[in-house]
Amino acid sequence: MDIRFNNDVAVVDWQRASELFFLVGWGHRSLGDIEATFKKSTYVRFAYVNDILIGFGRTVDDGKYYASIVDLVVHPEFQGHGVGTSILAYLKDSLEGYIFTTLTTAVGKESFYENQGWKKQSTSFIWPRSARQEKDNT
Question: What's 3-136's CATH class?
Answer without folding.
Answer: alpha beta
